[in-house]
Every structure is written in C-alpha cells, then in structure tokens.
Design brief:
- The structure holds 2 protein chains of 2 kinds.
- By secondary structure, chain A is mainly alpha-helical.
- Chain A is built from 26 helices and 4 strands.
- In chain A, the strands form 2 sheets. A two-stranded antiparallel ribbon of chain A has the order 1-2.
- By secondary structure, chain B is mainly alpha-helical.
- Chain B has a domain of 195 residues.
- In chain B, helix 2 runs parallel beside helix 4.
- In chain B, 60% of the residues are buried.
- The chains are: A mainly alpha, B mainly alpha.
- Chains A and B meet through strand 1, helix 5, helix 6, helix 24 and helix 25 of A and helix 7, helix 12, helix 14, helix 16 and helix 17 of B.
Chain lengths: 637, 498
C-alpha cells in the first residue's frame, strides 16, 4: 500500500509528461487526477490504521549511497507524523489536480502542468516518508525543483522566469545551511538515519566544536543549521522574499505548493527533529524569535498589498511564523495541528482567489475588483469561510489551532514565550484586518474594473467549485474534529508516540481566561472595523496614509528586502564576477602567464636575431668580454 | 599469459585509425570512414564493459596486468587496472563513440583526419588510465596533447591558433617538470614501476620537490586555479567533439593522476601540501563560479563551471578520506557525462545558428521541446540536484571535507548556490522567455542521432544518481587500500622523525 501511495503520482507524472501527446490532454488530466486521488484515499486508510490500529512501518526500498561508514537507504517510513503529512499532501494535491482541470482549461500545456503537479506530489511524499536526512534532502530539492518548474510555468513571462530562479536560488541559500547540518549530523553521529541519530543524542550533548576559534555546542549548531534550511523552504524572515514572487505561477500551484504543502516542509523538518531540538534551548529560542518576527513583519506587509495573491502569500508567511514559534516553545504537536488546519483554509483561500482571478480574466489587483459578491456567490461564501477559519473565528479550524499556539506560548512561562504570545495576539488582529480587507475590496463596495463589464462576470465551473467545497468542509470542521487527537492532553501522546519527542510533558495548566478570550474578541471585533475602514468611510484610511507616507511606502515596498538583497548579493556577485574575469583572469593571469611568456620569448628571439649581426668585430668584442669575465672570476676564486 | 585485454583496448582504436588513414575513400563520401570509426570505438566500448564484468571488486590488487620489457633494464611496458582506473576507461570508451556519432558536416575539411585524431586520442587516454609505469604513463599523458592540439589547431574556430598555443604552452610547462621528476625518481630508486615504487617508497627528503613537479603538470591538466585560463579558450575554439573529449576525459587525467601518483607515491608531501590544495580548490569553486555567472558565451560558461567542478574534485581527493576520494572519482565520472552532454547541447544549437552567444537565443522551448527536456536534465546534473549523478559526487566530497575542516566545507558548499544561479540563468536565457530573434524560428528539434547521443548520456546520469552502487562498489576497496597505505606511510615517517 505504501508503494502505491508514493509511486502512483510518479507514474502519473511520467505518463502525462512523456506520453501526454499520445494519450491526449483530457486523458492525462484524468490519469493524473485519478492516480493522486487513489493515493489520497489510501493515505486516509493509512492514517486510520495509524490512529486506530497503532500501525507503523519502515520499508527499505533499496540502498542508495554507501561509502565507507556512510549508508543511506531509499525508504518509506510510516508513523503518526508522516501519516498526517501523507493525508495533507495527497488530499490537497488531489483536490488541486481536479481544480486545475477547470482552471487551466484554456492553457495549451495542460499535460505538462499536470505532470509537474504529480511529480511534485511524488517528491513531497518522498520527503515526508523518509527515514533519513538524505532522502529528506532529496525530496526537499525535488519539491524545490517542481516549484521552480511551476512558478516558471508560463515561460514566456519574464517576471515568471525571474521569480522561478529567485525561488530556487534563495532556497539554495537555505539548503546550504541544511546541507551543512546534514554533514555535521554525519560527523557527530556517523549515520544519517533518524532513529540511530536520535538514540545517540544524549551522549553528544556536551560535545563542542571549534569554528573560527569559537567554541560552539555541537547540538546547538546542528539545530540552527537545520533550521536555516527550514527558513528557506518555509519562507521565514530574511529568506522569505521568494514566496510572494512565486505567485507568478498558476494559482493552483500557489495553493498546493506555496500554501499547503511544500512551504510547510520546514515545519515538518523541525518537528521531525524534535528529539534533537528538545536538547537545544538556544535553537528553540532562536526559532521562536524568527517565527514571531516573521509572523508580525509579513502581516504588516500584507496590510497594504494590492495583489490578491500576494496578500495571501504574505499571510502564508505569517502563518508559517506561527507554526515555527509553536515549535520554538516546544509545542510541536500544536504546530502540526496548525499545519494541518492551515492546509485546508489556505488552500481554500488560494483556490477561491483563483476562482476570482479566473472570473476577472486574470486580473489580480484588488483595486480593480469589488461589488461582485452576487455574481460569484459560491466563491464569495467559500472565501468567507476560508477567511473566518484563517482569522480564528470561534469554532472554525483556525480558532482551535491558532489560539492553542498562543496559549502554549504563554504557558511556556519564559520571556520569549510571553513575547511570542503577545505578538501572536497582535498578529491575529492584523491577520483579521488584512483578510477582511481582501474580502471587502474584492467582493463588496463599488465595481471598479474598467476592462470587463460587470454583467459578463460568471461563476467558475463546478469542477473548480467542488474541490473548494470539500476544502471548506475541512476548514470548518478539521479543528473541532481533530483537536483531541492532535493536541489533547492525554490522547495526543498516544497518537504521536515516538514521532515527536517531549523532554518534559507540555504544561497542562489552563491559561488565564483573559488570554483565552482576548484573541476571539479581537478577531470578531475587527470585522466591523475592517468594514468601516474599507467600505464605509475610506477617508480615515486616506488620511492615515497621507500622514504616514514613509511608513506606508516602507510597508508597500515590503520593508525593502528585495532592493537590499539585490544591491548586496546580486549586484555584488555580478560585479565581482566581472572583476575576476576581466581583471584577474585576462588582466593578470593571461597577461603575465601564457601571453607574457610568449611575448617574452618573441622579444628575446628578436634580440637574439639582432645579435647575429655578421660583423666580425662585434663577435670578437663579445668573445673578449667573455674571456675577461671568466678570467676575473678564476682569479678571484 | 591470458588474452591481453588492456592492450587490445589501447590498440584497437589505433588500428581503426590506421585503417581509416590508409583506406582510399572518396572525399565527398565521408560516411564510410565514420562507420569504421564508429564500429571500432563501439567494439572498444563493449570490450571495456566486458572488462568491467570480469573485474574482481573484492581485491585492491592490479588486475589484467601485462608486463613486457621494452627497453632492457630501464622501461617496462606495464599496464593494469584497479578499482580507481577501470571506471575512467569505461568513461573514455563510452564518450568516444558518442563523439564520433556527433561528427557531421560541420567538420568541413579533412574529416578522415578528424576521425583519426579522435581515435588516437582514445588510445592515448585509455593508455593513461591503465599504465603502471611512470615513463609509459608520461608518454601517454603528454601524447594526449598532440591530437588535442591538432583538433583545436586545425578544426577549431577563428582564434584557433592562439588557443592551441596557449593550451600547448601551459601543458608543456608542467610536463617538462614532471619528466625531470620521473628521471630523478629513476636515479634514486632504479625503477619506474608504479607498484614497486609503492612498496619501496620515496625518500621523504625529496618528496616535496617531486610532488611539486608532478603537481605542476597535473594542476594544469585538471585545471586548477590559477592555471586554468587555457581551458575556456580551448573550449571556445575547439569543435564540438573536441570540447567533449577535452571536458569529459582530458580533464579527468589530472584528477586521476593526483590519486594514483601524488597520493600513492608522495604521501608525506601530499599531506604537507593539503592546505595549498584546499586553498586553490576553494578559489576555483568560488572564483570561477562567479566568473561563470558573467559569461556571454555558452561554451565559456560551461568551461568555467568545469573548473569549479574540478575544484570539488581536487578538494575531495586531498581530504584523504574514504568519502572524499570516492566522491571525487564519482564526481569525475559524473562531470565527464554531464559536461560532455552540455557541450553536445551547445553543439546542437551552434550547428543550427552558428553562434554561441547566449543573448542570441531565448524562447526556443516552443520550437525544440525535446531539446529543452534533455538540456534540463544536464543542467540539473551540473547543479548537483539529488537524483542526478552530480549530487552524489558533491555530497560525498563535502561530507569527506567536513570531517577535516568545517571552514573549508562551508566555503565549498557555497558552490551549490552559485552553480544553481549560473546554470539556471543560462538555461532560462536560452530556453525560456519570449522568442524575440526571428531567425530562431527555423531551427528544428533534435534529430534521431542527437536524441540517441544525448539520452545515452542522460540515462546514466540519472541512473547512477539514484543507484550509485555499481560505481562506488567498484572503487571501494582500492580507495580503502590507498588510504591505508597513505596513513601507514605517514605513521612510519612520523616514527622516523621522532
């Protein structure tokens, strides 16, 4: 069964990618969607087996690399953690496949698109079912590659190509950290297999490394290096710049890769490595700080963006920040819970916005929308459900997972925990504001589009709405249904078992009531605030912008990260590359090397030619001179 | 004595070359000579596979050894293979027929001569990888210069003479020093037999000087920074098949020789010079990657990326760890396949458009989808994505390096970012984007023989990426033995000094 789950998407990718031409577009769509759907159903079966029947498995497919003491296998490992990921990945993927049939109906390259989606699913599955760091890295790079293909899917668009390369290269910066982390793991433990590594940890706690003369605790270093990899993939602050640009790809891609699955791989990595992270207070604090900064900063950026997909992309960054600081305060299961619920409502929001974009004929600017809620009733309702779930409206999925994160951060009881809780609450408020801004600007108010007549708007086809409905059901109920299983005091330990390690059991106290109430109250009250600001009385906002022009610009330009990086890294690399080439290779090495030598020889030979003048007295003079020198030398010796 | 399989491997291409040279063919009908060359080189490939099949992976001893007296009491013609060398022979015999298939109407003058040069080249390269006598090695090693010199000088582009001389000048400089070193080894020990020298050992006092002499030759061939500047010029001017041979095989001679001779004969000096090699390798990785980023000529870009990739190789070798050396050998095989393929890919579009300037292309994915697919596979191989052969090599090298020095490994690992940047940027500028140059529209997609050549390289790249076992298994014991020998030598020397 495990083989089927993992290799069906690959088979679909191959069939659609190489034989799409022969079997036709419709068939490739059907084949890929069907295969992934079967995977999804089987994954649910596995999930059921794991939860109810205590099933776990570690299949070794074959050996991959073995050199000296290094042995790495291709494997499929099933435990609670990978079962959760399996369900998330295959389910969202199946829905996105089906949705894409409608969304991409006008695209001439459908088989290629479906093939990439399936290939991505395969890579993601190898990532989550690995039993060692190297296969994880394989999946990690594999999903990065598919993301590269899919962002640049519309290869004629210059901006799409640029975004694709940016995504890949920025991720590679994170991968550098990740790779070094893997090397260090092998150096310390002599193996890359999770279980073996995790068992050896207690013996390595005291080990120190010397790097550039600084003593560093080895475990801390491992944790931070691995986390740098996670930062790249999960678009955390400093390495987040690729994610908003990645919205150049088709919207189903954004839903699948850049919201529900790939970007959560970093969270998965940290949770998977909880047996290491538990021993590194330093790394956990670092993660908390990065996580909460990301949550806050990207939420502020999301407030002022005008591209519907970019708003949701920044919102994704922000939610990933939540997940990270949940892991940072040691609540790995809560992070996984938020990952799980987030997959539903964020995919819902993205696919919903895709439906909007589809209806507006590829318009993405929310200033060009408005007033169409009656025209797109299903999309409207579904988007509202997504927004409610995202903002944590009581009893929808986000309410359970996000509030739990804030509560556990508070209960952690240390300074970073308190900060995290405070920032979590504030960010929840911002989230609510920007999310409702999106809804109001897109669906309500005046109709602002000049190019399209309002009457020409129509709802998307059923093949697109149906996946949205399923996601909406998930967004509404997944929190309530799985709360006990994922984060319940007793039940969750028996569910996660060894896949997550808690050095000390999580704090079971009840958080103070004011804390539990503050977020829902803020979230609910922000709806009328947003309505007032964005629909009723826009002058307040205009005044605000006018009075705080620098701040507004700062946010609109995304804190100038892109400009800064461009200046520091891109321009610098290019200039220095040019310098090395023109000045050193050509200017020094060639000039004094081969060209210099050949020039010298030429010069010498020209002189030697001159020397042979044919005049006897010159020869005689030289002979005499030589003779004299020789004699002098002999005498003085 | 058994069937002399190694000598057959060495001589077969020469026989083919002689046959082509002396056969009378009509100048306009070059096909028949091409078929002869193809037949011979393909037979050689099968023979080398048979050799691999017979090869015993459970021993580090040299196998299939042939030892013939050549000059009485002085030089023996001695050949043999172990786990380290056999793979290079297979690489050579695989690349040669592909090169010959790729030869077509673009070689306008004296096609017969060109084929002869390729076949002679094959002979010499195989000779390099299996010779077990320093003098024999030297002859093959430097002999390889001549056909390459001719390939660039006769069939090259506009600046061919300059490039050919630059190539010659660089390599000659190193080889003179190496010859002197070989002669002095003979005077010191009375033999040039490699296996005997392994046993006798060379006096620690002279090792450093001798190492440097060998190094100067190997470093040029590898090429290492700063003696790399001949490579981009040579590549740019060489015809496609020449570039392929140069990148895939000629560059591997340096790395192979480092393992076989520098580590094997001069362990103490090798140990002493490790920091130098690390430094030069790191410069090669970072510096040439940055230079590659800025290239406007496809071939130059790939040539510079070769220097960076070979930087990983030299780094791995001198970590003197199991993973490092195995990774280096793997990386050389991988780079042989990947760079050969990349140069063939450049050749494909060059034949159609007669330009290698990157900005003359763009948006050709719609016209040449098949080309776009294979080119992507090779690009990924060059980037070192897991699942391609490039990853396994780099990963093993870096994990070996990490054992020795965190700092070096960290700097070297930054190469993975640069490689992604320059290769993907190259790919994007050629394949993706809007089709702005009208003349590109008349390009046709890959023909049958091109598909055959490129997929014959793509399949092994992917296969050994997913399942590197056959390669690693073959080299394992020999590398292990080399390291043990190396370490025991160091220990003996240490004991002596105390």
């Amino acid at each position: 069964m495990e083989y089927t789950i993992i290799f069906l998407p690959l088979a679909g990718a191959i069939i659609s990618g190489f034989f799409g031409k022969y079997i036709g577009e419709r068939n490739s769509e059907v084949v890929t969607s069907l295969f992934v759907s079967v995977s999804a159903i089987l994954s649910i079966v596995i999930f059921y087996n794991v939860t109810v029947l205590d099933y776990s498995n570690n299949l070794v497919i074959s050996s991959w690399i073995s050199s000296g003491s290094l042995n790495v296998n291709w494997s499929i490992s099933i435990d609670a953690l990978s079962a959760v990921m399996l369900v998330v990945v295959t389910m969202i993927s199946a829905l996105v496949h089906i949705y894409s049939i409608g969304y991409m109906s006008h695209d001439p390259h459908k088989p290629r698109f479906m093939s990439y989606l399936s290939l991505f699913t395969f890579a993601m599955l190898t990532l989550v079912t690995s039993d060692n760091f190297l296969q994880l890295f394989f999946g990690w790079e594999g999903v990065g590659l598919c993301s590269y293909f899919l962002i640049g899917f519309w290869f004629k668009k210059e901006s799409a190509n640029a975004a694709a390369i940016k995504a890949f290269v920025v991720n590679r910066v994170g991968d550098l950290g990740f790779a070094l982390g893997i090397f260090l793991v092998f150096y310390l433990f002599g193996t890359l297999n999770y279980n073996e590594v995790f068992q050896l940890i207690p013996e390595t706690l005291e080990k120190e490394l010397i790097f550039l003369g600084i003593h560093i605790n080895a475990i801390n270093l491992v944790c931070i290096l691995l986390f740098i990899g996670a930062m790249g993939k999960s678009a955390q602050i400093f390495l987040h710049t690729w994610l908003p640009d990645a919205m150049e790809g088709p919207t189903p891609v954004s839903a699948l890769i850049h919201a529900a699955t790939m970007v959560t791989a970093g969270v998965f990595l940290v949770v998977r490595c909880s047996p290491i992270y538990e021993y590194s207070e330093l790394a956990l604090n670092f993660i908390t700080i990065i996580g909460m900064s990301t949550a806050l900063i990207t939420a502020t950026i999301a407030l002022v963006q005008n591209d519907i997909k970019k708003i949701i992309a920044y919102s994704t960054c922000s939610q990933l920040g939540y997940m990270f600081f949940a892991t940072g305060v040691g609540a790995y299961n809560v992070a996984m819970f938020h990952l799980f619920t987030h997959a539903f409502f964020k995919a819902l929001l993205f696919l919903g916005s895709g439906s909007v974009i589809h209806s507006f004929k590829n318009e993405q600017d929310i200033r060009q929308m408005g007033g169409v809620w009656k025209k797109l009733p299903y999309t409207w309702i579904l988007m509202i459900i997504g927004t409610l779930a995202l903002t944590g409206f009581p009893f929808l999925s986000g309410f359970y997972s996000k509030d739990a994160i804030i509560e556990f951060a508070y209960l952690r009881g240390n300074t970073t925990g308190y900060y995290a809780a405070g920032i979590g609450i504030f960010t929840a408020f911002l989230t609510s504001i920007y999310s409702w801004r999106l809804i109001f600007k897109t669906f309500h108010g005046k109709y602002n589009n000049q190019k399209l007549k309002k009457d020409s708007m129509h709802e998307s086809p059923m093949v697109m709405i149906l996946p949205l409905v399923i996601l909406a059901i998930g967004a509404i109920s997944s929190g309530y249904l799985f709360k006990e299983l994922f984060i319940g005091h007793e039940s969750s330990y028996s569910f996660w078992k060894n896949s997550i390690k808690f050095l000390e059991p999580l704090n079971t106290n009840h958080p103070p009531t004011w804390l539990m109430l503050s977020t829902p109250i803020l979230v609910i009250s922000s709806i009328p605030i947003a309505y007032y600001l964005f629909i009723k009385n826009k002058t307040i906002l205009e005044e605000l912008i006018k009075n705080n022009k620098p701040l507004y610009k700062f946010l609109l330009n995304k804190w100038y990260f892109d400009e800064l990086y461009n200046l520091i890294f891109v321009k610098f690399s290019k200039n220095i590359g040019l310098f090395f080439w023109k000045k050193i290779d050509v200017g020094i090495i060639d000039r004094f090397g081969p060209d210099g030598i050949s020039g010298l020889i030429k010069n010498l030979s020209i002189r030697a030619v001159k020397f042979q003048s044919g005049l006897i007295y010159q020869y005689a003079f030289v002979m005499l001179l030589g003779f004299a020198i020789l004699l002098t030398l002999l005498i003085f010796k | 004595m058994n069937f002399p399989i190694l000598s057959s491997l060495i001589l077969l291409p020469t026989i083919g070359a002689l046959f082509i040279f002396f056969s009378k063919t009509n100048k306009t009908k070059y096909q028949s000579s091409k078929y002869v060359a193809l037949f011979v080189s393909f037979a050689n490939f099968l023979l080398s596979l048979y050799l691999w099949f017979l090869f015993d992976t459970t021993t580090y001893e040299f196998q299939f050894v042939e030892n013939q007296e050549w000059i009485r009491g002085f030089i023996n013609y001695k050949v043999g293979v172990d786990g380290i060398s056999i793979l290079f022979i297979i690489l050579t015999t695989l690349i040669a027929p592909l090169c010959i298939i790729s030869v077509n109407a673009t070689i306008k003058k004296n096609l017969k001569g060109f084929l002869v040069a390729i076949l002679l080249m094959e002979t010499l390269m195989i000779g390099v990888f299996c010779s077990l006598d320093l003098v024999v090695f030297y002859l093959f090693f430097e002999g390889g210069l001549i056909p390459m010199f001719l390939i660039i000088g006769i069939w090259g582009g506009e600046k061919r003479v300059y490039s050919a001389f630059k190539f010659f000048l660089y390599t000659l400089l190193g080889s003179v020093l190496m010859l002197i070193a070989i002669i002095s080894i003979y005077w010191m020990t009375g033999t040039t037999d490699v296996t005997e020298l392994y046993e006798i050992g060379i006096n620690a006092k002279y090792q450093n000087l001798l190492w440097l002499a060998f190094f100067s030759s190997f470093a040029v061939k590898t090429p290492m920074w700063p003696v790399h500047t001949w490579l981009p010029d040579a590549h740019v001017e060489a015809p496609t098949a020449g570039s392929v041979l140069l990148a895939a095989i000629l560059l591997k001679m340096g790395g192979y020789a480092f393992i076989r001779f520098s580590l094997g004969l001069f362990p103490i000096a090798s140990d002493y010079f490790v920091p130098l090699i690390y430094f030069l390798s790191l410069v090669a990785i970072v510096y040439t990657s940055l230079v590659a980023l800025m290239q406007e000529d496809m071939k130059k870009l790939i040539a510079y990326s070769s220097v960076a990739h070979m930087g990983f190789v030299t780094l791995g070798i001198f970590t003197i760890t199991q993973q490092g050396i195995e990774g280096s050998i793997f990386q050389m095989i991988s780079h042989g396949l990947v760079s050969a393929a990349l140069f063939l890919c450049v050749g494909v579009v060059y034949e159609r458009m007669h330009t290698r300037l990157i900005n003359r292309y763009g948006g050709i994915v719609t016209i040449m989808p098949k080309y776009a697919i294979v080119f992507m596979i090779f690009t990924l191989g060059a980037i070192g994505l897991p699942g391609t052969s490039g990853f396994v090599g780099e990963f093993l090298i870096l994990i070996g390096t990490f054992k020795k020095s965190f700092l070096v490994a960290t700097i070297a690992s930054s190469g993975i970012i640069f490689a992604a940047a320059y290769m993907l940027w190259l790919y994007r500028r050629i394949i993706f984007g809007e089709l702005i140059h009208e003349d590109l529209k008349k390009m046709i997609d890959l023909n049958q023989s091109e598909i055959f050549i490129l997929w014959s390289l793509a399949i092994p790249i992917l296969f050994i990426g997913f399942y590197p076992e056959p390669i690693i298994n073959t080299v394992e014991i020999s590398v292990n033995n080399l390291i043990e020998m190396f370490n025991s030598n160091l220990q003996i020397n240490l004991a002596k000094n105390n």
